[in-house]
Amino acid sequence: MNGIELDREEFATVVMLLSAERVFGLAEVLPATVEERGAAFAAGLTRLRARDLVTGDAGKVIPDTGLIRLASVVVDPRLVIVAEPADGGPAALHYADDSGYVSLEGDAVSGYRLGWVPDTGLLARRVLRFLGIDPQ
Asked: How many CB atoms neighbour CB 1 within 10 A?
């Protein structure tokens, strides 16, 4: 899996499956109350199952390996690269571990896109383009 789009509840569900409480650079990934988290988890899990991104029965949840790989880098990165444009627009977030980078785009309203960035050269070109600099 090179990339995936997730809505707010799907993303929150994946974060909860990884037992994470937060994602660096994002505000309010998880709902504030236990009740709201439970509702978001149930809704997200239903949609992830419908998309075949999660299998297993009610007592056992088995996420897609590509999805969990992307999300695991985001919730527990070795390094985070933040590029903030001069115009004050949203930042570009890239999370790194020993095997590569994951880009995270979007927000709670429009949803999130996680994408695999396999090497440092591609990452540098992406960040430069985001900042309006021609990488040549």
From this structure: 14
Residue 54 DSSP SS3: strand
Burial class (CB in 10 A: 0-12, 13-18, 19+), 21: exposed
Going by pLDDT thresholds of 50, 70 and 90, the confidence category of residue 91 is confident
pLDDT, tens digit, for every residue of 21-39?
999 988 888 999 999 999 9
Buried b (16+ CB within 10 A) or exposed e, 51-87: eebbeeeeeeeebbeebbbbbbbbbebeeebeeeeee
pTM for the full model? 0.89
Cross-strand bridge partners of residue 21: none
Residue 24 structure tokens: 């660096």
